Each structure stands twice: as C-alpha cells, then as structure tokens.
C-alpha cells in the first residue's frame, strides 16, 4: 500500500482557480477536441463516487447530423415555451441570452442514468433511489473540471424535453436523461458566469446559504 498524495498550498490555489474558472460555455470554436483528451476526461469522470459503486452514468456521443438537428429543434421549441412563461420585460431579457452552443460545439455528449442497473446490488438507494442520478451529476462535474483543466469548455443544456430526446438517441427505456453537454474550445474566457454578466441573476453570498441547527 502506497501513501496518500500530499496536496500542497500551490495545488490548493490551482484547484480554487480551476473551480472559479469552470464556466458554463455557450460560445465554441469549431476546431475538434483531440480524441485522447476527450477519452482522458471521460476516464476521470468514471472515477467519480457513486452510490453502492453502481457507476450508473452512460455517456452517449452524438455525432450523427440528423440527430443533432433534431436536438436543436427540441431545444428551439422548449426555449420558446420557456420564454413565454415570463412577463414581457423578463421574457425580452431571456430571449437576449445565449443559452446553448449546440450548433457550434464539435462534441455533443448526452449523459444518462441507468436506473435499472444491477451494479452495486442496490446498496444505499432503497430509501433514496434518486442517489443514482446524483451519482451521475458527480461524474458530470468531474468531467467538467477535467475538461477545463485541459483548456476545453463545457456547456450544460437543460432546456430540452427529455422523452423525445431519448427517442432521438434510441437509448434503452430505463435510461433517464441527466445532462446534454456541449464540449469544445471556448471562443472567450470569463471569470464570472454569463448570467451574472448579463444581469439575469447575481451570485448569492456563501454565508447566506449555510444554515446552522
């Protein structure tokens, strides 16, 4: 058995920078993501913790042009429906936001949770079956940080109708969509979130989110 690694102050500072600069990217360059880079990020994602070691994440790479076009159409419909839910001024602000990079991103990854997996023998999810999906979210976050550390941007598109999207991608019925990710080299870099920059929603103070009991 080898000793655990030592993470010094310099590493912790780099980690803080990585987390702070992880941004949700919507504007991508068109140049491809190196295959080895993508494989390395996915391999790190698969080291994420999961309930009962169930590893329920399923990454679907969407390369087919017709399927991509169907995903864009799905987004466009859902995005317009979302805008219509807001009052006039907020709806106008919503429509000015760029909320996806589906047309520009060289890599699309749909991330599903296999909710009927037998891996892990059900440990830890009898009372909280949603832990399977939470495990997938952890894998997505790990992938995101790994990509950012390699200069690759990631955008999470949630304005999609999951059932039609699952049909578009012809995945098993037990798989539930957790995320649709756009992946590629960012056109620009920002330390602040786009929604802060465009006055949609400011960051909350961390101390306001900690409740003592």
TrEMBL record:
A Pfam family this protein belongs to? Nitroreductase
Write one Gene Ontology MF term.
oxidoreductase activity, acting on paired donors, with incorporation or reduction of molecular oxygen
Q: Which UniProt keywords apply?
A: Cobalamin biosynthesis, Flavoprotein, FMN, NAD, NADP, Nucleotide-binding, Oxidoreductase
What is the E.C. number? 1.13.11.79
Nitroreductase domain location, by residue?
19-185
**Which biological process annotations from GO are given for this protein?**
cobalamin biosynthetic process
Q: Which Gene3D superfamilies match?
A: NADH Oxidase (3.40.109.10)
Coiled-coil zones: none
Q: Which domain of life is it from?
A: Bacteria
Listed under catalytic activity are:
FMNH2 + O2 = dialurate + 5,6-dimethylbenzimidazole + D-erythrose 4-phosphate + H(+)
State whether it acts alone or in a complex, and with which partners, per the record: Homooctamer.
What family does this chain come from, according to its entry? Belongs to the BluB family.
Question: What name goes with this protein?
Answer: 5,6-dimethylbenzimidazole synthase
Q: Which organism is it from?
A: Methylobacterium nodulans (strain LMG 21967 / CNCM I-2342 / ORS 2060)
